[in-house]
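re: ur question from earlier - yeah i can do the single chain one, its not a big deal. heres the input i used so u can compare w yours
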Amino acid sequence: MEDLEYRKIEQRIAILEKALKITLSDEKILMRLKSLEEEFAKLQATVDELNKEIVGLKIENDLLTAKISKIHSLTNNFEVSIPQNKIQPRPNKIINQGDQFLKEYNLLLEKTGYEAKTARDAFIEKYKVRGFKCANVDERINQPSLKAIFENAETVQRGDYWAIPISGNKFKVVPNVKNYTENYHTTRAMGEVFNSNFQSGIYNKIQVEDAAEFINSGNSWTLCKAGKIYLS
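and the output i got, formated as tokens:
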């Protein structure tokens, strides 16, 4: 009899333990669901903030588009003037290119490499070119207003200026320089020998529109007439 009662008690205890386990499991599920609800609420808040930012950006974009449209409508009503210190477009025709040597010289400047060296040597030989330079470059560095002194160069190739004889001691003169810089324009006196469109910086192309004229006397060269070059 006692064994029977004991087994009944064990069965009841087992049923209670099982019920307790189910209850604990339900509580864990509820806690997890609550945690997920909280995370979802946070995500929803973030989405709401992003939507607000998107709306704000759209408003800013609409305002910017309206301003750009207004600017376009205003600029269409007037022409933009070119500042005076900008290089003006080069004329379609070179002003004074009647001399055959000047035509050949301008073509010579367009050549490069070995072809250029060969063409330069042929040009020097054909026109009996002489070379001279500004002899007081060092003094003019500190005193740009100092009058330039022109004297024979050691060789034709080392001369900043090439002189082509035209009659007696009178010569037509063109620049012998690859890149025209501030140094050539001021210190080496090319700004005095040639009128040009020089502003500042470096120009890697030179077109001679009118040769300068010099008179030679031994080692000395005297400018008689300024020439004209176009730089680009």
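Residues 2-75 form the longest helix (74 residues). not sure if urs matches, ping me
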